[in-house]
Amino acid sequence: MAVIGDLIKKALDITGKIISEPHANAAQKDVLRNMLENARFTAFGKKYQFSKILADEDVIRSFQEKVPIHDYDKIYNEWWHYLLEGHQNVTWPGGQQYFALSSGTTSASKSIPVTEDMLSCIRKAGISEITNIGAFDLPGDFFTRQILMLGSSTNLIGQDDFLLGEISGISASNLPGWFGSFYKPGLEIASITDWDEKVKRIVEEAPNWDIGCISGIPSWVELMLKEIVSYHKLTNIHEIWPGLAVYTTGGVAFEPYRKSLERLFAHPLVYIDTYLASEGFIAIQKRPDTMAMALFPDNGIFYEFVPFSPDYVDDEGLIKPGAPVCSLADASENVEYVLLVTTVSGAWRYMIGDTVTITDKARAEIRITGRTKQFLNVTGSQLSVNQMNDGLRVIEQEFDVIIKEFIVAAVHRGDDYVHKWFLSCDKRPDAVQVAEALDKTLQENNKNYKVARSRALKGVEVQLIPEEIFYKWSEETKKKGGQVKIPRVMKEEAFLEFESFVAGQP
């Protein structure tokens, strides 16, 4: 088998050398033009005069002038609700077979169309990920092993003439036939809707598999691995899967989970970041010397960028009228942007809800910095989730602890505001000292936060709780496993409800 693996590795190496990367800016123009051509006779295309846009010498400029920016509520209320009612040719040619149910942190009720064209793009991106994996210098026998994809159920919900499910479940239910021998847990287990039952079956079957790669959201992957290690009385997961070499992560920042995950390994894995959203496969990490991810400039998505500033984004995380918008060609490195996508699923200039920075424009590489609606700015502190994560890594080092989950809000103390943090922690350092240290590092690294601390933000409070409480709350208020993510920033009312939930735990 190792010989076969070496042959596959060599083939992938050769393929990677033959297939050159497209020129991102030119590819983006072609992608937009092709989407406008395909959709010009849809209701949306007629409304916004796609034929006239295509006739313009500067298609991108004309597109940005004629087509408005949409958040989910706007595009759903004006267009997508017709798809759920069975209408065709609304925002993309033809009818609709799949809707991805958003399980993100800002809403649990979004139904986002997933067309056959988008599924084709997701498969193409997945193949790109496989062919690119040779860049990480893995042993030949890795390419003969199986991939465990821990996602949501492939047992999609039938409703009228379409199917509902989370994007990972829709993608897994449409895997190409040749991938079946590599894919675990297999379609039978993957179709189980109950998270605990699914993990139980994975745990029981684990010794029968030869896993080389795991894919999934870190918090749920870790819980699964702990169950396997405990059930089979292992010291680490490599005792049962000695060839496990790669973890493809996504959905949330990986770093908060690195230390606790590596306690379950005999040695660190190769970590590859991915960016699969309900709206499409946005980006993947293509090289080992960075955790930045490369956009797919030629794969059914046109990207735009709005500077993430209070001048252009309101307190609800929505883009203000008249905000400047850049294409990839015009965007700058190291500026925080709100990401907009136009896709072959009929999303047009759509706020995906994430903020990003472009780290390497020539390579079209980005980092996710947070969510537009999970940005703490009630008192002018302008704290992104990325800055919060960075601050907590400093706390981990200073107090020798592991902090994987957190929720924070600006809450009233009389007429004043404080930032109240709930932190998961594997030890119990003094919470007051942790609050002081966190406050200090945030002031050192965010000038807006430092100004807020001298004015409207009167204090910082920290409460340390077991991480299990976060997952129990998630299970009781949302659901467990799959793509479910813990929100990082809450508004005061929701935060006080979470606080009451914590107070009621034994």
Produce the secondary structure layout.
Elements: H1 2-18, H2 24-39, H3 43-47, H4 50-55, H5 59-66, H6 72-84, E1 98-101, E2 111-114, H7 116-132, E3 146-149, E4 157-159, E5 162-165, H8 167-172, E6 183-184, H9 186-190, H10 195-205, E7 211-215, H11 218-231, E8 246-249, H12 255-262, E9 270-277, E10 280-284, E11 293-295, E12 301-307, E13 326-327, E14 336-343, E15 350-360, E16 365-371, H13 385-399, E17 406-413, E18 416-424, H14 431-445, H15 447-453, E19 457-465, H16 467-477, H17 492-503
Parallel strand pairs: 1-5, 3-6, 3-7, 7-8, 8-9, 18-19
Antiparallel strand pairs: 1-2, 4-5, 9-10, 10-11, 11-16, 12-13, 12-14, 14-15, 15-16, 17-18
* Terminal CA distance: 52 Å
Helical residue percent band: 25-40%
Class computed from helices, strands and strand pairing: alpha/beta
CATH class of the domain at 385-503: Alpha Beta
Q: Which segments are poorly predicted (pLDDT under 50) over 5 or more consecutive residues? A: 1-12, 14-19, 104-108
Estimated share of beta-strand residues: 15-25%
Q: Which radius of gyration do the C-alpha atoms yield? A: 23 Å
| Rough outline | globular
Discrete helix count: 17
Q: Biggest β-sheet: count, sense, barrel?
A: 12 strands, mixed
- Number of E strands: 19
Strand order of the largest sheet: 6-3-7-8-9-10-11-16-15-14-12-13
Please, what is the average pLDDT? 88
CATH topology of the domain at 385-503, by name, is GMP Synthetase, Chain A, domain 3
CATH architecture of the domain at 385-503: 2-Layer Sandwich
